[in-house]
Amino acid sequence: MLKPIVTAKNLTKTYGNIQAVKNIDFVIFPGQCFGILGPNGAGKTTTVAMLYCFLPLTTGKLEVLGMDVTRDQREIKKRLGIVPQENNLDQELTVIENLIIYAGYFDIKKSAAEKKALALLDFFNLMEKKDVDVEFLSGGMKRRLALARGLINSPEMLILDEPTTGLDPEARHIIWQHLRLLKQQGLTIVLTTHYLEEASQLCDQLFIIDQGVIIERGAPQELVEKHIGKSVVELELPVEKQQQVLENLRPEINGHQLLGSTLFLYINDEGRNLAGKLKQHPFISYQLQRPANLEDVFLKLTGKGLLNHE
Amino acid sequence: MNRWAIKVLWRNMVVFKKTWLTNMTFYFIEPLLYLSAMGLGLGAFIGEINGTSYIRFIAPGIIASSAMWSASSESTYGSFVKMHYQKIYHAMVAAPLYIEEVVAGEILYAVFKAVIYGSIILLVITAFGLVSSAWALLTPFVLVLAGFVFALLGMIWTGLVPKIDSFSFFFTLVITPMFLFSGVFSPIDPFPGFVQAAAWFLPLYHVVVLLRSLASGDVGLFLLVHAGVLVLSIILLYPFPQRFMKKRLGL
Description:
The structure holds two protein chains of two kinds.
Chain A: E1 6-15, E2 18-28, E3 33-37, H1 44-51, E4 59-64, E5 67-68, H2 73-78, E6 80-83, H3 95-104, H4 110-123, H5 139-150, E7 157-161, H6 169-184, E8 188-193, H7 196-202, E9 205-210, E10 213-218, H8 220-227, E11 231-236, H9 242-249, E12 255-259, E13 262-267, H10 272-278, E14 286-291, H11 294-302
Parallel strand pairs in A: 3-8, 3-9, 6-7, 7-8
Antiparallel strand pairs in A: 1-2, 1-4, 4-5, 9-10, 11-13, 11-14, 12-13
Helix pairs in contact in A: 3-4, 5-6, 8-11
Chain B: H1 3-46, E1 48-49, E2 52-53, H2 54-85, H3 88-94, H4 99-127, H5 139-160, H6 167-181, H7 193-199, H8 203-216, H9 222-237, H10 239-248
Antiparallel strand pairs in B: 1-2
């Protein structure tokens, strides 16, 4: 049995009167890509900021790399890589200077830092930008540089806070490719995200957090199968007809969820019987059958969507 | 204040190496404008103060005020941009640094600037023949004290203010009055008694007395009292910027 790399027990964080994280427990094992999924303001950033010894805990116990975060902060931070949500690169320095200066904070000698920095620039395809000031990089390049900076100390665990928020789809896929390579190399990765696709593509294990509480945990595919099934049929129909349609379709479905005028039906087969029955309801203005995903899990568990949630 | 704080200073020096020319020009030209406009223009009407020509009288004061302006703007506008807009403090604290060390490094950098800019003015006024004593070689030590006092005052403000605009209060209510009432442009004797007493609470006053005495060679043990006031201010102010910044960032 592997020893956990992170153990959190009854972890709570309070800002004034607001409880951002409420009494949560979780364990992360080495080599895992571990996801923290939730809407904006759910407590994701607060949770990881406690992991990397940035924010102090209000109550609870948190061990990272076998050390207590309230005591051995410098030792823990030396062995972690952090990629924060907001780019905080040194705007006035060049790409390579950013890496070398940051390496200095880890007591890495300049020659070793240079060697490591060049290897990382090569890995992240930033070599030709080596001597360019950071302010002239594109958003995707800045993110890659932030990732490279997070790896400058060869960390045992990489913590990414919303690694692709604000990036265009192409840049996002490039980041994912790099993260998959790092994962294959055995690096432990913790990432927060509100993109269900990101979580399902990358994470082995995750928990879903909402309003500071963990509402479900497990492997992404298991969660989808457990709560939803195979596919989801989305229907758009007048609110007053919803009950009538539901009664009629109930034998064919595993479950359902309502969100405004959209009805989500969860099914475990190919949906042939359902398709036949749907034809009886001409007032359905839109219908779509698609594979079930994590967002459906989130919607079912919280009764609200993941992205456009206040 | 330890070797980790030096890393923060070093980071700032690397940035400084790239921008020193622009920076320097700004902090260099302005004091020279004051020196020439007041010293030559106003000086022509004033004649002498206590047997010294007016330009010679104000020149050391210009060194002092230059150190004050550079340390206090670095520790306010400069630090606020790094802390609030660029999130550099966040990046450093996510690395193996503590916020106290980051703040200490920032203060050291403001001190460095005060020493550099003040010393350049010293070189210039020496070249113009406005310095008459070798005691002026001690100027950089006084600039270190001045740098610390104004960097600490600036950082306290940076740890407290909600927005970057709020610094104008600091400069209008603290720095500018200090610039005008600390004896840079005239002895403080003509001011009413309470202003003269108040001057003792203005760090710049002590810096001006020290630098003026060193430049003229009129030295004595009384200078240790002025230096002592500065040292005491540094000791009293030192804990506050770290405490406020820690609270501000929720660390």
